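Good morning,

Attaching, inline, the backbone tokens for the sequence recovery test we're adding to the shared suite. The designed sequence is right after.
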């Protein structure tokens, strides 16, 4: 029974570590804003960065969520990205390299 408990605890810890590692990095020196109805932009004061967006297609039953990224930018230039194909903007953030 002790072995089974250890395996379950190890899998639980490993699973939560993987979930944390997969989370997008939220950049502190950046500003983000909605652009248009289904897009967003990110501008940072330094470094290399891009905007990340989550788009949702509302279908009967479960919605479909997809993640998209704008181009990498530097020097205060805006990175932009929009949802396409009838999907709606759900969330957006800035990521630094």
């Amino acid at each position: 029974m002790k072995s089974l408990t250890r395996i379950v605890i190890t899998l639980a810890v490993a699973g939560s570590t993987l979930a944390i590692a997969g989370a997008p990095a939220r950049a502190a020196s950046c500003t983000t804003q909605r652009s248009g109805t289904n897009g967003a932009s990110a501008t940072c004061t330094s470094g290399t960065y891009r905007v990340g967006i989550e788009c949702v297609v509302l279908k009967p039953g479960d919605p479909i969520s997809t993640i998209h990224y704008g181009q990498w930018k530097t020097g205060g230039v805006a990175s932009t990205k929009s949802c396409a194909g009838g999907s709606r903007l759900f969330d957006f953030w800035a990521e630094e390299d």
